[in-house]
Each structure stands twice: as C-alpha cells, then as structure tokens.
Amino acid sequence: MAEIFGVGGPLPTIPDDLSLAQFILDAHIPTRPIRKGGIPWLIEDRTGRKIGLEELRARTYGLANAFASTYKIQEEDVVCLFSPNHVVIWATHRLGAIVTAANPSYTASELAHQLKLTESRLLLVHPDCLDQALEASRMANISSDRIILFDASPDAPYPCINQLVQEGLSRAASFTETPQPGYFWLFRPSAPITHDIQAVAIPHYAPIANCMQVAVNYKINEYLPSGVVPMFRVGDVALAAVPFFHGYALVSWYGNCRPPSLHFSFLSQLVAFLFSGVTLVVAPKFDFEDMLRSIEKYRVNILPIVPPHVVLLCKHPAVKKYDLSSITFCLVAAAPLSAELTSQLAKVIPGSRIGQGYGLTETCVGVAIVPLSQKIGTLGSGGQLIPGIVARVLKPDGSLAKTGEPGELMVKSPSNASHYFKDDKSTKETFIDGYVSTFPSWEEILKVRGFQVAPAELEDHLLDHPDVADACVVGLPDEYSGELPLAYVSLHPHAIERISHNHDETAKIKNSILRHVSDHKVYYKHLAGVEFVDVIPKSAAGKLLRRVLREKAKESNARREIQVSSRSKL
C-alpha cells in the first residue's frame, strides 16, 4: 500500500498571516458563507441572550486592551483558563499571547503543575473553581493579583471579565496585533513516559487549515447536486455540549485531547461551525437533562458529543420527555463508539445523520470524519480521510504495510502541530519528516469518559501509599465510561501481616488506597477498584506485563469476581 490521500479538494489558499481571532472575527475568506442579518453567532444557554459579531469584536478588543494595559500581557506570554465553557481565548490571541486551557475538575496540585510547566502569567478562573485556583497559584508562586474571575462574585475580591472589558473599551489602545501569529497550547492530562502533563504547540495556521479542510470536505458554500443534503447550513444551531478545555471543543471550539482513538476536535467546532454560519449555544457546564432541554428550546440541529452522552441518550428515562426531532447531524468523537450504540442512537434520533470522527491534538485535529455521502457512518469507523490529508501505515521494519496488514498510522496535514513544549525527545519521536506518528508511547493509555488516563501516573501515585509495594493499573470495560481504572496491587509485608491477624484489614486497606487516589486526582482518574495479587507480572527486562493483568481483569469481570467500588450511573 502506498500513500493514502484524503478524498476531495483541492484546498483553497490557507492564510498564513492571521491569528485565529483575526480569521474568525475580521478576515474576508472567499469560500466563507455569508451569515445573514439576524443570525447570532452565539447564544448564552442559561439566559437565551444572543451575541452577534460586533459584540464579539468589541468584547474581544476590550479584554485584550485590559490584559495589555493592566497586566502587561504581550506576545508569547501565557494565560491559563481554569473554567468550564467560556469564550475568552480570542482576546489573548489578539495580543499574540499563548492560551493554555485547564480542566476545571483538576485538583490544586494538578493545576499547579500545569501553571508551572507553562510559566503562566495570568489565571482566569470560574468562581466555582476559585478555591482550587488559589491553592494552585500559591503552589506555583503566582501572585493573587494575577487572578481574574469569569463572573463577578460578591465574596471574592478579584476583578471579573466584564469589568475588564469595560475598562479596556474606555482606554486608548495599548497594543498592536502581531502580524506573525505564534502558538497556543493544547494539553493532554498525562504522558505515559513522563507521567506528566504534556503541551502540544499549535501554530494558529493549523486550526485555520483544519477548518478549511472540513469546509471543503462538506462542500460548505458550494452548490450541491439535487438529492444531496448538506451536513450543516448557515443558520443551523449547534450545541456546545463538550467543555472548551477539551480538544474536541477547541477547533470545533478549542482544547486539549489526543488519544490514539477517535477524536474530532471541537476546536474545529468553534472555528468550523462559526466559519460556516452556524450559531453555537454555549452552556456553562454539562448537565444531561439541561442538554435535552436546550436541544428542544433552541431547536438544535447539530449535536457534537462523546460516547458517554450517547449512552445517556439511549438509556436515560428523561430522553422521552423532550423533542429531539430538530437534530440533523450528530457527530461523536473523543473515544470509539460501538456499532451497537450507533444502532441504538439511530432509533433515538431517527431523522439525524450520525457519524464519528478521528483526530488528535498533534494534527489539530480532524484527520477523518463521516463523509457527506453517508447518513449513518460505517459502523465502527472513524470516517474517511478529509481533503489535504496524506497517510501512511508503517510496519515495525519501516516498510509500508499492505492492505489488511497492521502497522502504525502516520499522518501529514497542513493542520499538523509543530512540536512539544520543552520535550525534544517526544518531538523527535512524533514529528517525523512532515508526518505525525499517531501511536508513540500511547498503546497503554486508558480512555475514561473521553478523557485520557495514563496508567503510569496512577501507578507512581499508588507507590506513595505506605501499604503498596508494587502496582499495575489496567482498564476495566464500562458501558458508560468506556473504561475505568482498576488497580492490581502487591502489598508490603507489614500490610500482609496486618491482614493475617485481622481479615477486616483487607477492606480497610483497599478503601485507604482508593482514597489515596481520589483525594489527589481529578474525578475521572479515580480507581474503580483495587485487587490484591502476590506479585505484579513483569518481563525479564523489568517491564510491566500489563496485558497479563488486562486479560485477568477481563476474565474476572466476566465471572463477576471483581469488587468494583463504583460503576458509572446514568
């Protein structure tokens, strides 16, 4: 098999002298559809308030001006966003500064690590996350006068976004937009080798290119032959059901993901949907029944979701109370969706197109997506390669794989990222001769509710527990979450002795280990259970034989021998 090329094209000229904010808010792109008067850009889900282009431009300018004048933010400075959904990224990009988005579920220590890694100079925080942010800022030596709230809080003496917007609008311009836009950073929660947060450097050119690839793929603003129904149209409404810190949300809106599995970035939503004249309904946080209510209230046409949402749509009793008939396109990404769930979802929203997408942060992000020609995407497929993509499948010896042979997927795209931040080794392993390697060191990553969980990170943390001599974490299949982390632990002799004298100690030690993780890690990294073994299997070279315990977990789970502390509930 030679190189594989994405279907469609050619691509139009991709501007290389624009920031993402300029591309969306300012630039005239010949292939861009005209958004007719009265069609809002955004709708605030909670209030129904509609936001148009001029308000977006004004607020973006005001906030950028305040960042520059009050906080002296300039080119290549880093601004960290620690909040659920909120569109403030463009103001930072106006200054040529860099955005790093943090998961609002992070513990203080996890956030502090990201702040220190990125050398963030400003921290924007939702009031609900303030306690963690204050503790993290102290740990990262960030002064409290560098903290800004997204919304005003009477109990917190910190400036808020609206206040800064007004201040910025009232002042003379204190910045000039950079003619050469730089980067923003998307983060994966942990890298299996380093057990650390890893930052991917994304040039502004990349999401702009990916937006235009998607537009060409779906023939946006082109004449379609009779009988061909467009995937989405000017005036359609999309629901931002996935948080903006997640990569699936940052090209579709902006973000932070990368599995070697299904991922079509919502960075491609904020960009691709707004580029195409679609209105986004923005919710402050995810609540399933609120999502159903919003679909009915705003007659949502486009629903970008992740597999756990699909499980809820198929099985939650509240679904029958709401009218979902407005949905015309349901895009599922961030983790694989089974053929069975796809078929069930088609019965829940029978008039809708349903398909999956595949991508990764390093390709920012879309590589493949359900094609325009299919109403229901090929079951189990991540879609077809989009225009501008060139792919290879390499065997371990470096030769090209033939049809049907396994190998490593290599992707070349105009939307590829450039490097990892302060990680030359991973950069050389991943970015090779214009291609991105999609599998370096990621074979063992777990996908929990669409989030990445590195077993090595949890194993290192478990070894800090006084009763744990050795540990191995594997994925336990779960219908809602996809996988749940299950820990196999061998105990220190002193713990084994305590159990020999008192069998009640078994439950006490297991609960202590579970708390050891839940007290220090974000919720989706919490262990589903702990199983004791005499010894953790390893190779002669000392490498964990994770596959042995993975198979053991599979068999034990089938026989219902594993004591699971908590399974996901609908």
Automatic annotation (TrEMBL):
Pfam families (alphabetical): AMP-binding, AMP-binding_C
Domain AMP-binding enzyme C-terminal positions: 457-543
Residue intervals passing through the bilayer: 237-255, 261-283
Highest taxon of source: Eukaryota
AMP-dependent synthetase/ligase domain ranges (all copies): 47-253, 259-421
Keywords carried by this UniProt record: Membrane, Transmembrane, Transmembrane helix
Any GO MF annotation of the entry: CoA-ligase activity
Matches recorded under InterPro entries: AMP-bd_C, AMP-bd_C_sf, AMP-dep_synth/lig_dom
Name of the molecule in the record: AMP-dependent synthetase/ligase domain-containing protein
Organism in which the protein naturally occurs: Jaapia argillacea MUCL 33604
Phylogenetic placement of the source organism: Eukaryota, Fungi, Dikarya, Basidiomycota, Agaricomycotina
